[in-house]
Amino acid sequence: MKAKISLLNFTRVFCSMRNAVQNAKPYSEVPTVSVPKFILRNLPGGKYYKKSLKEIQESFYNEFGNIFKLPAMFGKPEMIFIYKADDFETTSRAEGALPIRMSFDTLKYYRATKQSEVYAEYGSLATSDGEKWYKTRSQVNPIMLQPKVVQMYTKQIDEVSKEFVQIMRDIKDDKNEMPKDFKDYISRWSIESIATIAVEKRLNILSGKTDDERGKKFINVTLQFFEKLSDFEMKPSIWRYYETKAFKELMEVYDSMTSIIFSYVDEAIKRFENEETKGTNEIQEESVLRKLLKVNKNLAFVVASDLLVSDLTTSVVVFTLYLLAKNPEKQEKLRSELMSIMTNKNSPIKSENMKNLPYLRAVIKESLRIFPIGSGNTRNLSKDVVLAGYHVPKDTMVFMNAYIELSNPKYYPEPEKFIPERWLRDEKYENWRSKEINPFAFLPFGFGARSCIGKRFGELQIENIIMNIIRNFKLEWNYPDMKVRSLLANFPDSDLKFKITEV
Ligand code: HEM
């Protein structure tokens, strides 16, 4: 009987999906602009000229509504833009067993042509698809998503953050403000802490004043990496047909980063071998790098390179500090939570101290809502679906733009306000968050089998640095609102002159 009912249900769902596809408006009628019109709009005087990715996508929404088709051009496929959480859900659930996300084409090209041997068996998590992606991901999941493995790094991450706090004291000016280029300090903090995981090495680049030539070069190319890569991904370019000067420069950046990362992994291998012969290996639980090396040396190269180029924590930290600086009462509430757990502001933060911090987690979530790290996520459809009332066929790339829902007052009352309380499970605050919210409206780390592999490490890094800074300093922001630069990810675009006062 049970089997009969579920078969009946399945048939009903299947038929209703088929009917929905049949009753939908045809794909050819999805609102769009022609290629010449789109190019004209990007030229001086045009609607999209010098506009950020965020502004251009919002302009699609304002002009065309819930769905827009960007035609194929310059070697890039046609793409659909959608804006509603229900459509994000339909798209995400149609991702198939081997999900495909829009990739960084130039990095993909570099790895396929210049590093083909290393990438022959294990694909990159960030830039490959299909079976090769899966081969890597299935090895890495049980290592990187295991809380026990992540917790092992709390001590190293905490040491890096504590050194960073000291550097903040050293670099403050006579008004107790951080220097204009404070963002570069935070970027170096982010690279330094992820290197303790990816290549098990302290790079000692926090202050930016290292004597180590390799470390200096690594900072230099890493700071250029995202900007240069975004340029090629976002703007029309002929690199597929002709290698321009800018393209050659980009390849050099990839080359330097890759060879430095590989040299760090090689060094780690020698270090581990030495420890084994001398019997000095004190690590109780095997580290990420050791576990990867046990499987295959190239797997370790591939994953270390992915981890060192995929980290988005810098922007999250800057935006969170900014929101706390602008909202002193929320900052004070967070400080009380932290001080109630650890009364000594300089005590080491251990994993047991990080278990019960609901307000800290709510602060970070609210920061990711107000300042999402990217404009959205992408998925290739593994089957035909209906989006915003239109039939969209299998194998279409869909861009799920996050901004509209994240600032939708229906879901988040007074969306422009920084209200971490929205995320607390406390009836007192339930007016700040709608019960009808579709969870697909807020997916900062993506969805499903292809979601962020660094989520737990990223959270550990972000929570730890925020804890250390807020326990030590009162933060103020005495300047006009921070500007945001929207490349493939979002970055602060103002001088980060936070004022700090010792707590
Ligand atoms: C707060 C910080 C971070 C945010 C908001 C973030 C967000 C994301 C998002 C949205 C994706 C795409 C997921 C999808 O397609 O469903 C992603 C993928 C990825 N992230 Fe993160 N990430 C963060 C930190 C990190 C860190 C610290 C690492 C490295 C340790 C990392 C490594 C990766 C990698 C390798 C992928 C590709 C995974 C795959 O396709 O299999 N991320 N991240």
Automatic annotation (TrEMBL):
- InterPro entries for the chain: CYP11_CYP27_families, Cyt_P450, Cyt_P450_CS, Cyt_P450_E_grp-IV, Cyt_P450_sf
UniProt keyword Iron, yes or no: yes
Q: Which GO terms describe its molecular function?
A: heme binding; iron ion binding; monooxygenase activity; oxidoreductase activity, acting on paired donors, with incorporation or reduction of molecular oxygen
Q: Is Oxidoreductase found in the keyword set? A: yes
Which terms in the GO cellular component ontology are assigned? endoplasmic reticulum membrane
What cofactor is this protein dependent on?
heme
State its location(s). Endoplasmic reticulum membrane; Microsome membrane
How does the UniProt record describe the way this protein sits in the membrane?
Peripheral membrane protein
Where is heme bound in this sequence? C452
Highest taxon of the lineage = Eukaryota
SUPFAM superfamilies in alphabetical order: Cytochrome P450 (SSF48264)
Q: Which UniProt keywords apply?
A: Heme, Iron, Metal-binding, Monooxygenase, Oxidoreductase
Instruction: Please describe what this protein does.
Output: May be involved in the metabolism of insect hormones and in the breakdown of synthetic insecticides.
Q: Which family does it belong to?
A: Belongs to the cytochrome P450 family.
Report what the protein is called. Cytochrome P450
Source organism (scientific name): Polypedilum vanderplanki (Sleeping chironomid midge)
